[in-house]
Design brief:
- The protein contains 12 helices and 14 strands.
- With 381 residues, the protein is α/β, with parallel strands linked by helices.
- The chain has a single domain, classed as Rossmann fold, CATH 3.40.50.720.
Length: 381
Amino acid sequence: MSVAIVTGSAGLIGSETARFFAEQGYRVVGIDNDMRSRFFGAEASTRPVRHWLEQHLPGYEHHDVDIRDRERVEKIFAQYGSDIAIVVHTAAQPSHDWAARDPYCDFSVNAVGTLVLLESTRRYAPKASFVFTSTNKVYGDNPNRLPLVEKETRWEIAEDHPYFEHGIDEQMSLDHTTHSLFGVSKLAADALVQEYGRYFGMNTVCFRGGCLTGPAHRGAPLHGFLAYLVKCAVTGQPYTILGYKGKQVRDNIHARDLVNMFWHYHQQPRPGEVYNAGGGRFSHCSILEAISLCERILGRPMQVHYDPKPRVGDHIWYVSDTRKFQAHYPLWYWKYDLEAILREMIAEAQRALTMPAEPAATSAAIAPQLPVSPSTTVVPP
């Protein structure tokens, strides 16, 4: 049986990946030591998701291992060897602010941990696909130098700019910019993944994500824009907007749509590739617009505070151009638009609030998919 190794397997993208590949008949081996609880506190722990995977995903095998532990990671890879068909690397320290608090930990997890996994793959499963969840933060704050126009509820790029119709492509410069330390550590990993594809000919790929989201996301103030916003909207907790008048724009992609990108790549891998991966113009919003949509769905206002100081290196406007990936893999398309994503996340947050004893891991992102209204389901043109 083909093996899929998934790091960060109890996180948002990792758990969706585990379920997806199990559905395709793969034996899923998860690596996750719940560092998210160290980063963001017990409330953000992924242990409930891990327990759900162990109890409900046939054949799932979990390893409570730090990806920086070379000896233990290599032991896992040696056990499965050439049966490993794909490695999906989603484990990371994901926060701008946290990275500045502990740069050693941030860099070792994001960069050194990725090196450990790449070397283990090269040594024991060199023909496997190696999928890395990178980030749009590798571009630093270069997107903020684009000609932006302030509108009533959002910042928008000038209509005569090449990025207006489709968003930012993979040719944007990575240099002469403020990345945040998190962006730097992910950029180092991104470059490593590309190099193992180009230098060693391995089937490696970087997906530079926009806002990755879904109902299994354990949102926290320092990470998980939509997930934390939804949590505040449902519970009535105050939500604090950080800078740019709340008009900063993000594109949002459902975890299931992103994992489907992984799957398409795996069917016909291209060594050393890089793809921007987000909701594009199909699924994007400002913070103010997301708040308004949550309020409309819930039928009540949110408690919102404003702090004029933005996060260092934060993007004012970012929309991913996914045309390169769609040109290489024309059968892929989004399923979830912004409203479909938010409705699913709100339903899960409400369920968790009324049934606190049941782990949130049983959300639609891991358990069988909730039906999506035909009005918000899009099929490829």
